[in-house]
Amino acid sequence: MSKLAKEYSNLGFDPEEIRAKYKAERDKRLRVDGNEQYVEVKDDFAHYIEDPYVERLERDPIESETEVVIIGGGFGGLLAGARFQQAGITDVRIIEAGGDFGGTWYWNRYPGAQCDIEAYCYLPLLEELNYMPKEKYSYAPEIYSHSQRIAETFNLYDGAIFQTRVTDLRWDEDSARWHISTDREDTISARFVVMATGPLNRPKLPAIPGLADFEGHTFHTSRWDYEYTGGDHNGNLTGLEDKRVAVIGTGATTIQSVPYVAKHAKQLYLFQRTPSSVDLRGNKPTDEEWFESLEPGWQKARRQNFDAMVTGQPVEQDLVNDGWTEIFRLFASMAPKPGEAEVSMDEMVELVELADMRKMNGIRERVNEIVEDDSTAEVLKPWYRQFCKRPTFNDEYLPTFNRPNVSLIDTSDEQGVERITSKGVVVGGVEYEVDCIIYATGFEVGTSYTRRAGYEITGRDGRTLSEYWGEGLKTFHGYSINGFPNCFQVGLGQNGFSANLTAVLDDQAQHVSYLINEIRSRGARYAEPTEEAEAGWVETIRSLAAVNIAFFDACTPGYYNNEGKIATEGGGIQGESYAPGANAFNALLTTWREAGELEGLDLTY
Ligand code: NDP
After folding, report:
1. Residue ranges per domain, the chain?
2. Is the pLDDT of residue 571 over 80?
3. Could you tell me if the CB of 252 is within 6 A of ligand 1?
4. CATH architecture for residues 63-202+445-604
């Protein structure tokens, strides 16, 4: 009997039934308007992104000439700054919209905020900073402090320009410099620019009819209004005790924050379109003895091990051993052992799918075990493959639905909340009157880069990035763009994706350090990729993307699959990545650097 036939004979469920259910649930949620279903947070909605954490600091405009400007002070900018320091690139300024470093961890301070990726992989530079995370999964305040620790250690506060948004970036051929304008009237020029504005920096709102009509209180989770709710990251939201609260959205942010809201609100209505998969958290304090026993180089090895696991590559041991890597542990137990007959690639793909079904059956069973009301439990079950959406891990979310003051409102038949009125939220013709609406509706991903960054970039010969990327991303290795000399993009897009984004950013920071130093030491004024090299890289991305695109096209809509349009329009976080994954991408870049030819880059002297 073949490996696959053996698995089928032992399943205890019907895969065809599950496939049909996945498809039906996906089709039900697929909207023709894709990203257009969201509204840009500006003009009448601009208050949703004001900084509630610091007073605006008045200051005179800055005029400055510098070697490197980094735009963004989240982990992308911090790691670039840190790695540049280590590489001897010290004349660096970091421009950041927030009042401090931290990026996503500066803005997202909602109660219960935590990182779902194991801290030993996620928190960068642990060995360099000799820092031991408190727990396996860090809470936001620890991560925020860690970002400040990086800035202090690498003297990044010296060149920091906070509470400042870049408004324009323009290349000047004569001086071979970038001119950077800001909303503080600064005029800063730089020889190199690193754009590190992050993939999830721009909160979005659903364009629900009546959005502006609501007369109660409202905010987005990425600007949590503790003045209204009371309390802090640890909860104690006593300001909600006499309030009826609506929360819209059930992604990773809600899974973590809603238990705190439910504990204090007089009444909570949670509006769900697609349920998240909610797995066991199982957090635990770091074992000091174990941590001290780790050998130098352990963090890089652990990150690589994690990436190998989640891309299905063979490893000797699953070091992280959590809910992210479980499907692949299941798969490994099903795959042929040494000495057994090999299976074909198609059979391998099917075995992974069966492992996924087992995993998701477990997730759905967990809902049954915890949620007492059967009809609520049914609505909370996710019907898609685990990595179709960002999986979540939490031990308090599901028990929340056993509270008498909590109602789950399913909006899937309406493809989302129907209407907002002056008094509340309407679904299925029923108006839920509330005092406060909290939008947990995520961030722009599929819109244009310049819209998300908040500034236009004009390169050589007046070419704007909006025009150049009008019909899709074009980069060389994800970092550099033809016609935009000495400008580097770090983050996601045409490079190796990992759920552990800080590892990606760290590898990128080291690669860009190498590029800058090579351009300088070779005496070039600037470098940019040739048209051919860029076209070749785009072709590489596209030709390898087919398997990824097929996987995500079958998924329920979300930002991973460009709201269901990945097959027709490309894009989405998963549509533009180097499909073999972060480890393979890093290996490719290592070979490229070792060749020492800067092949594909054009240096101008
Ligand atoms: P998401 O984009 O994941 O979730 C937005 C939610 O809003 C979805 O549930 C979406 O439903 C819902 N929604 C959108 N429009 C409507 C509508 N018209 N009516 C009803 N519901 C609507 O945002 P999050 O802030 O939760 O998370 C964003 C990302 O940030 C995560 O995916 C993760 O990458 C990261 N993050 C990581 C955390 C961690 O490590 N722990 C914690 C928090 C965030 P639908 O799914 O149907 O579109």
Report:
1. 63-202+445-604
2. no
3. yes
4. 3-Layer(bba) Sandwich (3.50)
Bridge partners, 351 (sequence order)? none
User: Residue 358 — pLDDT band, cuts 50, 70, 90?
Assistant: very high
Cα dihedral 314, 319, 321, 324 sign: negative
Residue nearest ligand 1's atom 36 by CA? 252
SS3 28: helix
The atom number, within ligand 1, closest to the CA of 250 reads 9
For the record, the structure tokens of 313 come out as 């590559």
Residue reference for tokens 């990086």: 150
**Residue 585 pLDDT > 90, yes or no?**
yes
> Average pLDDT for residues 268-281, to the nearest whole number?
97
Cα(249) to centroid of ligand 1, in Å?
A: 6
Instruction: Scan for tokens 């087992």, then name that residue.
Output: 358
Residue-wise pLDDT for 212-259, tens only, equals 999 999 999 999 999 999 999 999 999 999 999 999 999 999 999 999
Tokens encoding 564: 């269901």
* Contact criterion met (CB below 8 Å) for 386 and 363: yes
Average pLDDT of the residues of the chain: 95
Q: Return the pLDDT at 524.
A: 98
In short, whether 138's Cβ falls inside 6 Å of ligand 1 is no
Does ligand 1 lie within 6 Å of residue 115's CB atom? yes
Q: Residue 75, SS3?
A: helix
220 lines ligand 1 (CB under 6 A): no
Residue 484: helix, strand or coil by DSSP?
strand
